[in-house]
Amino acid sequence: MPPGIPYIIGNEAAERFSFYGMRSVLLAYMTVYLANPDGTMAVLPEKEAEVWVHFFVGSAYFFPIIGGLLSDAFFGKYRIIISLSMAYCLGHLCLAFMGVVGNTREWLFVGLLLIAIGSGGIKPCVSAHVGDQFCKKNGRLLSRVFGWFYFSINFGAFASGLLTPFLLEGRNIAGTFGAQVYPWVEFLVGEKAEEEIIFGPHYAFGLPGVLMALATFVFWLGRNRFAHVPPMGVTYFRQVFSGESLKLIGRLSIIFSFFIIFWSLFDQLGTSWQIQARSLNRIIPDWIPVLGGYELLAAQVAAVFNPLFILLLIPVFNFLVYPLIDRFFPLNPLRKISIGLFLSTFAFSIVACVQVAVDNGATPHMGWQVLACLLLTSAEVMISITGLEFAYTQAPKAMKSFILSLFLLTVSFGNFFTSGVKHFILNDDGSSKLPGASEFWFWTGLVGLAAVLFVFIAKSYKPKTYLQEEEANPVDD
Prior knowledge:
Blueprint: H1 5-33, H2 46-60, H3 64-75, H4 77-96, H5 104-132, H6 142-169, H7 177-189, H8 201-221, H9 235-240, H10 243-266, H11 272-277, H12 301-328, H13 333-359, H14 367-393, H15 400-424, H16 437-460
């Protein structure tokens, strides 16, 4: 195993805790807790907040294209990651000032902009940096390490999904988890009345900032253990935008366009699914050990179960599901992606049916949304992890970061598309032109159509794999 991998995995786990922790509470903060220093509320309507959350996520996944170009052409991956991580930390510092001084919405905007630049700019560099640690000699380990890389992402996301929403909304209510925690943290938060929020927004946004600083430090520690691929200078642009490279980008773009549809649905876990969860019975069944009887916060449902399922499903798919399917139906990356798109269709059809029940006045149990989350997470394993490896292996050496940034750009376009749709169907009074279950059925139909079309597109694509010819040696940067 290359010596730099543990530092990259550790950095990624802490950085993803930072990003997903902040993101898991963003919608709830904007719609319930957003307030100015004088105590006046500045909250947004739910549907408008959904538009802005998807716009932020889209922006965070737009900046990879810039980070990828700068790293491959001029500065190298290590320098881009370190420098933009500083901007990332500064963005979290801005969020910490919300509600303390100045205009809260302005602090929120500046903080989210810096986080979008920092998190987006480093994304393709970190992913490509993983691949740079390998050559043809140990390339057989690449798929497994990309799986563990994705595992670290979701370990950070799982931990933040449990903790950060509790920091924002956990209350000192008798018989709840908050009441059990409060005596241990009273020295830190001070005296809290019955049913009062224990921590609040400053802790909920402050902890992700601390984790981002830790992520930056861990990555710095590995600076002399990494294999560094030097930037190519201006010749890089001649290669990237040569006729042959543009043909490659065009071919990959057809495949990547289907990722856009997937991400336009998947990232609604943090918006429309979270809003739906507010209307569900969120009490954990008594038969579940330790946690039985507790009620999850609406912001915790998808934020906890999605990364938890990832942690469980990655080894299950690698060692059981894929080998089993491969016995009867030979798998390749494009076939995995195709299956994932159909799973996404089934997942959204379940939450659409749940919303029908909610619209009719029922209170379904969150278990139905958890089941849909299991299917959507299975689709994520087959689409996102496979897509990450596919993007890296299909890119020539000089274009690794750039092609990975195009892959990440599909997340951006997916969220921009979702933001645009939600803005288009937003009425002046804050209601929706596709109320309730109607919007869920729209997204179900869209991904179902994409799944069918992808079957035919995948058959015509001819893959070509690129890995380093020789083993790269760690050098000082």
